[in-house]
Design goal:
Blueprint (H helix, E strand, L loop, with lengths): L1 H22 L5 E8 L2 E7 L23
Antiparallel strand pairs: 1-2
Amino acid sequence: MLKKKIASVALAIIFSLSMAGVSLAAKCKGTVESVEKGKIVITVDGKCKLKAGEAVNIKTKRRVIEGC
Protein backbone atom coordinates (compact mmCIF):
# COMPACT_ATOMS: atom_id res chain seq x y z
CA MET A 1 0.00 0.00 0.00
CA LEU A 2 2.82 2.37 0.87
CA LYS A 3 4.58 1.62 -2.43
CA LYS A 4 1.46 2.61 -4.38
CA LYS A 5 1.24 5.94 -2.53
CA ILE A 6 4.92 6.69 -3.12
CA ALA A 7 4.61 5.77 -6.81
CA SER A 8 1.52 7.95 -7.28
CA VAL A 9 3.18 10.93 -5.56
CA ALA A 10 6.32 10.47 -7.68
CA LEU A 11 4.27 10.35 -10.89
CA ALA A 12 2.34 13.47 -9.88
CA ILE A 13 5.59 15.35 -9.22
CA ILE A 14 7.08 14.25 -12.55
CA PHE A 15 3.94 15.29 -14.43
CA SER A 16 3.78 18.72 -12.79
CA LEU A 17 7.48 19.37 -13.47
CA SER A 18 7.09 18.40 -17.12
CA MET A 19 4.14 20.80 -17.51
CA ALA A 20 6.15 23.60 -15.87
CA GLY A 21 8.91 23.09 -18.46
CA VAL A 22 6.43 23.47 -21.31
CA SER A 23 5.12 26.74 -19.91
CA LEU A 24 8.62 28.27 -19.86
CA ALA A 25 8.88 28.24 -23.65
CA ALA A 26 8.53 31.72 -25.13
CA LYS A 27 7.05 32.48 -28.53
CA CYS A 28 8.62 35.40 -30.33
CA LYS A 29 8.02 36.55 -33.89
CA GLY A 30 10.41 38.54 -36.01
CA THR A 31 12.04 39.16 -39.38
CA VAL A 32 15.49 38.06 -40.53
CA GLU A 33 17.51 41.17 -41.41
CA SER A 34 20.82 39.59 -42.50
CA VAL A 35 22.73 36.31 -42.63
CA GLU A 36 26.55 36.36 -42.66
CA LYS A 37 29.00 33.52 -41.99
CA GLY A 38 26.85 31.66 -39.49
CA LYS A 39 25.35 34.75 -37.83
CA ILE A 40 21.70 35.68 -38.20
CA VAL A 41 20.35 39.12 -37.28
CA ILE A 42 16.64 39.05 -36.40
CA THR A 43 14.42 42.05 -35.65
CA VAL A 44 11.83 40.94 -33.08
CA ASP A 45 8.22 42.16 -33.28
CA GLY A 46 6.91 43.35 -29.91
CA LYS A 47 8.10 42.25 -26.50
CA CYS A 48 10.36 39.21 -26.29
CA LYS A 49 12.25 38.21 -23.15
CA LEU A 50 15.47 36.94 -24.73
CA LYS A 51 18.99 37.68 -23.57
CA ALA A 52 22.22 37.78 -25.58
CA GLY A 53 23.85 34.36 -25.76
CA GLU A 54 20.64 32.46 -24.98
CA ALA A 55 20.03 29.26 -26.98
CA VAL A 56 16.94 29.31 -29.23
CA ASN A 57 15.14 27.05 -31.70
CA ILE A 58 13.97 28.72 -34.88
CA LYS A 59 11.04 27.53 -36.98
CA THR A 60 10.86 29.10 -40.43
CA LYS A 61 7.72 30.19 -42.21
CA ARG A 62 8.22 30.75 -45.90
CA ARG A 63 5.82 32.64 -48.09
CA VAL A 64 5.44 31.61 -51.69
CA ILE A 65 4.47 34.29 -54.19
CA GLU A 66 3.46 33.09 -57.62
CA GLY A 67 3.28 35.32 -60.64
CA CYS A 68 1.00 35.20 -63.65
